Amino acid sequence: MEMNLTTPRSILRRFAPGLAMLGALLVQLPAQAQGIYLCTDAEGRRVLTDSYKNGCKTLDISNNVGTPIPAPRKGGARAPSPPPTTPAAFPKVNDAEQKARDSDRRGILEEELRTEKKKLAEMKKEFNNGEPERQGNERNYAKYQERVEQMKDSINRAEKNIEALEREIANIK
Question: What is the model's pTM?
Answer without folding.
Answer: 0.46
